[in-house]
C-alpha cells in the first residue's frame, strides 16, 4: 500500500519526528512517503507548499492513505485544513500525539469546539497513543478511535550500568515538563549524593535555566541531543527523570527503557500503562517534589542487584510490547482494514 505521511520534518526536534522517522525508515510491506508540514526554520513556507501540492502528490505517488501526525493548537488546524483538501477516494488517519489536547479542547470557545469536532469527524480513523487518550477522543467524536502505543528501535542487549552517576532528562525544558520541580529535587538529592549529576537535554527555556542553575553544581543544562548521540549518552545513565504535568506517551521514556534505564516520572497520560511502579520504574504525582526526592534517594541507596532487576524488567517490557516490528505490523493491519471499508 502507498502511504503519505504528513507531519514535522524527520530532522526536527521532538518525539513526533522520531516516530515518523522510525516508520519511514522501516522496511515493511507498505511504501511510505513523508511530506514535511513543519520545521523550526520553515513553518509557513512548508505549510503553504503543502496546500498547493498535496493533491498533485497524491495523484503522482498513487497514494491510498494519508497518515497525519497531529498535536494540538496550530498543528491540529494545519493538518485539518489539508484533510479537507484530500480527494474523496483517499482514506485518512489522524494519529494524535498531543500531550494537552484535553486542555486545548476544553479551553476552546463553543465555536472552536464545533470546528474541532467537525475536523475530527472528517477523518476516517483517529489513532491515540494510549487507552486513556482513546477514551478522551471517543467522548468528543463519532469517528472510530483506536490506540497504538509508540515504539522504538531496540539495541541488541541491555547495557545498563548500575554504577552510573547521571540522572538524565530529555525533551523540552520548561514548566509543562516539570523542569522547575526538577531543580528543587536536584537540590535535595545533592545534599545526600553530591556526585550524582542531573543533566537536561532539550530545547525550550534553555538559557533561562542555565541562569537558574548557577548555584546548583549538580545540574547541567544542555541543548538538543541528536539521535546518533543518544546511544553513548544512555550507556552512562542511571535514571531518566521526567516530572511532567501533561504527556501522551513520551518517546523519551520508551527510548531510555529500551536501553534498560528505569524511569522516575509522573502518573499522567499513557505513562501508567507503560510503567509499573516499583517494578520497572517509579511513579509519582505531578508537582510532588517531596515524593520525587524520596524515591530518587531510595533508588540511589539500592544495591546493584536491585537496580539491575529494575533495568532488566524495563528492557524486556519494551522489547516485548514496544518493538518497532510489532508496531509496524499493527499499522499494516490498520491500513488494510481501512482500505477494505
From TrEMBL:
Pfam families membership: Glyco_transf_4 (PF13439), Glycos_transf_1 (PF00534)
Domain Glycosyltransferase subfamily 4-like N-terminal: 37-152
Alphabetized SUPFAM superfamilies for the sequence: UDP-Glycosyltransferase/glycogen phosphorylase (SSF53756)
InterPro entries xrefs: Glyco_trans_1, Glyco_trans_4-like_N
CDD domains: GT4_PimA-like
Location of the Glycosyl transferase family domain: 156-315
Protein name: Glycosyl transferase
Organism of this sequence: Candidatus Enterococcus mangumiae
Amino acid at each position: 500500500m502507498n502511504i503519505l505521511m504528513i507531519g514535522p520534518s524527520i530532522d526536527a526536534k521532538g518525539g513526533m519526528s522520531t516516530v515518523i522517522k522510525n516508520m519511514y525508515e522501516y522496511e515493511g510491506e507498505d511504501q511510505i512517503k513523508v511530506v514535511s508540514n513543519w520545521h523550526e526554520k520553515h513553518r509557513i513556507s512548508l505549510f503553504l507548499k503543502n496546500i498547493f501540492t498535496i493533491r498533485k502528490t497524491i495523484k503522482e505517488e498513487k497514494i491510498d492513505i494519508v497518515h497525519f501526525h497531529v498535536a494540538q493548537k496550530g498543528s491540529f488546524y494545519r493538518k485539518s485544513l489539508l484533510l479537507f483538501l484530500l480527494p474523496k477516494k483517499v482514506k485518512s488517519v489522524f494519529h494524535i500525539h498531543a500531550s494537552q489536547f484535553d486542555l486545548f479542547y476544553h479551553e476552546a470557545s463553543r465555536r472552536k469546539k464545533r470546528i474541532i469536532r467537525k475536523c475530527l469527524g472528517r477523518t476516517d480513523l483517529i489513532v491515540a497513543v494510549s487507552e486513556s487518550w482513546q477514551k478522551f477522543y471517543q467522548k468528543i467524536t463519532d469517528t472510530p478511535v483506536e490506540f497504538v502505543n509508540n515504539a522504538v528501535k531496540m539495541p541488541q542487549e541491555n547495557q545498563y550500568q548500575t554504577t552510573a552517576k547521571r540522572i538524565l532528562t530529555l525533551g523540552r525544558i520548561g514548566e509543562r515538563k516539570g523542569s522547575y520541580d526538577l531543580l528543587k529535587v536536584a537540590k535535595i538529592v545533592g545534599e545526600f549524593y553530591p556526585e550524582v549529576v542531573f543533566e537536561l537535554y532539550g530545547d525550550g527555556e534553555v538559557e533561562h535555566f542555565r541562569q537558574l542553575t548557577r548555584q546548583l553544581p549538580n545540574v547541567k543544562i544542555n541543548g538538543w541531543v541528536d539521535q546518533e548521540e543518544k546511544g553513548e549518552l544512555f550507556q552512562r545513565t542511571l535514571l531518566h527523570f521526567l516530572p511532567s504535568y501533561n504527556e501522551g506517551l513520551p518517546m523519551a521514556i520508551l527510548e531510555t527503557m529500551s536501553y534498560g534505564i528505569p524511569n522516575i516520572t509522573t502518573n499522567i497520560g499513557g505513562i501508567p500503562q507503560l510503567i509499573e511502579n516499583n517494578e520497572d520504574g517509579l511513579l509519582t504525582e505531578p508537582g510532588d517534589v517531596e515524593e520525587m526526592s524520596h524515591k530518587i534517594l531510595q533508588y540511589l541507596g539500592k544495591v546493584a542487584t536491585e537496580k539491575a532487576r529494575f533495568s532488566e524488567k524495563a528492557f524486556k517490557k519494551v522489547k516485548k510490547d514496544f518493538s518497532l516490528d510489532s508496531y509496524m505490523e499493527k499499522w499494516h493491519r490498520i491500513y488494510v482494514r481501512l482500505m477494505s471499508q
